Amino acid sequence: xxxxxxxxxxxxxxxxxxxxxxxxxxxxxxxxxxxxxxxxxxxxxxxxxxxxxxxxxxxxxxxxxxxxxxxxxxxxxxxxxxxxxxxxxxxxxxxxxxxxxxxxxxxxxxxxxxxxxxxxxxxxxxxxxxxxxxxxxxxxxxxxxxxxxxxxxxxxxxxxxxxxxxxxxxxxxxxxxxxxxxxxxxxxxxxxxxxxxxxxxxxxxxxxxxxxxxxxxxxxxxxxxxxxxxxxxxxxxxxxxxxxxxxxxxxxxxxxxxx
Length: 259
Known about the structure:
Strand order of the largest sheet: 1-2-3-5-4
Order of helices and strands: HHHHHHEEEHEEHH
Strand content: 5-15%
Distance between the termini: 47 Å
Oligomer: single chain
Shape: flat
Number of strands: 5
Largest sheet: 5 strands, antiparallel
Structural class: alpha+beta
């Protein structure tokens, strides 16, 4: 497991832990609300004008607030659990130091699939069931399904499957070329200005803007609009490393250069 994967696992663990805490809060508040509502006699209205009215309204308000907070915590738990489940499921990240290796493995699989699709269709066109069984070791049930027509009268592997797979191969190869080209680029020299420093951090694949002091609100707003986010761990405003990030960094700090 590389450093990026370790960070992903740690992030997933934090989200799962937060989801568990939210579920615990929801269960506790639901129990409190149920207990409070159970103390109110069934069908008992608020006695308007009675000396108990004010306390009764406050009591019911607190019970309702617990119920509302329970629902909020339950929804938050579901949202956090969903985010935890999605960690690592978004494809290969450019931040992963093994991104090229993983993408090459995907290309290899897609190309093997493409060759298999072509072989299947070759046997299907010939009506050669024995060839399918011999070459691909498919079961009789699988072979029968390959010869069954779909709603559009197509047999074997439909053309849209091979077309989409071929497009995916081209996309993966283009991304590999992009990552390799980016890795081959020499690291840019840091750029320093009055009160700030722009520097590449190849270890985390980020462009960082370090400030001597907390920047003005106008500059922080500009940074956010340019895609930068504050990183407490890095003690800098960061954005994924790219030529666009450099241009955005220079744009966001232009007012500091002119003051």
